[in-house]
Amino acid sequence: MENFAIQVVTVLVGLCVVWLAQFLSKKYMGPTRARGRKKAQARHHFVKGAQALAKSRTCSGKPSEARSLAKEANSEADMAIMLDPLDAACHVLKALALEQQGLFPAALRSMDVALSPEVVKNLTPSEMSDALMKRGGLLLSTSKGRRNLDAAISDFQKSLEITPDNVKVLCMLAVCLEKNRSYAEAEKTYVRALALDPDSDEARSGMARLRP
Ligand SMILES: *[C@@H]1O[C@H](CO)[C@@H](O)[C@H](O)[C@H]1NC(C)=O
Fold first, then answer.
1. Does the CB atom of residue 154 touch ligand 1 within 6 A?
2. How far apart are CA 199 and CA 112, in angstroms?
3. CATH number of the domain that 194 lies in?
4. Which residue among 66, 97, 123 closes a domain?
5. Quick one: which atom of ligand 1 is closest to the CA of 157?
6. What is the pTM of this model?
């Protein structure tokens, strides 16, 4: 009788262990695996979107084809974002696809999401520097005159804090400084650009405007 009781207890304990193991694996492994699968699907859409965008940029001679490829890139980016909303690269892709369609204000909003605090963590420093350059450019394309100038200047400055030797960003900043009538600052910035690339057309023509 005692033996039987021990056997029953042993079986029950065994069942409990099996149940506990299943419960824990569902609780902890399930979501991770599902998340991993979602991330993989998001990557897949991201890659398809990036390819469509690259193709769209190469067919400038065929505007309607370029437009439909940019739209395709946009919807792939949307699917990637739905699956993995915190992946900054997907928001950057969406911004670039919208920009390619000439939809600058919408592109700017996507770039704002990419650079928002909870999303931006997933960008490497050099990606972040590029994203800041891109947003600065979009800020300038979405408004004539002064309205976005300060914000654009700030984005270019932050971009240069990460990658100080980017001639393109230096020239974009210098043009903004010219528009801001900060001529001494603009000149210093062109000098920095020319030190890095003496052949830069943008920097040379900027210098020519400031020191005619
Ligand atoms: C832009 O111009 C304003 C007003 O003149 C000035 O206060 C500000 O410092 C300038 N910004 C930069 C980055 O030079």
1. no
2. 33
3. 1.25.40.10
4. 123
5. 13
6. 0.80
Range of the domain at 157: 129-212
Q: In whole angstroms, what is the distance from residue 116 CA to residue 110 CA?
A: 10
Q: Which residues contact 142 (CB under 8 A, 6 or more apart)?
A: 104, 105, 108, 148
CA–CA dist 135, 156 (Å, integer): 9
In this predicted structure, what is the pLDDT of residue 17?
58
Tally of domains within the chain? 2
User: Whose Cα sits closest to atom 9 in ligand 1?
Assistant: 182
Question: Looking at residue 192, what is its pLDDT?
Answer: 97
Joined tokens for residue 50 = 């990036």
Angle of the 63-83 helix axis to the 30-58 helix axis, nearest 10: 170
What is the CATH classification number for the domain harbouring 89? 1.25.40
- Ligand 1: residue of 175, 178, 180 to mutate (most ligand atoms within 8 A of CB) is 180
Intervals of the chain under pLDDT 70: 1-31
Nearest-5° Cα angle at 81, 75 to 86: 160
- Pocket of ligand 1 contains residue 42 by CB under 6 Å: no
Nearest residue to 151 via CA among 143, 162, 142, 139: 139
Show which of 123, 150, 181 is a domain's final residue.
Answer: 123
Task: State whether 119 and 139 are in the same domain.
Answer: no
Residues 83 and 143 reside in one and the same domain: no
Q: Residue 162 class from Cβ within 10 Å (0-12 exposed, 13-18 middle, 19+ buried)?
A: middle
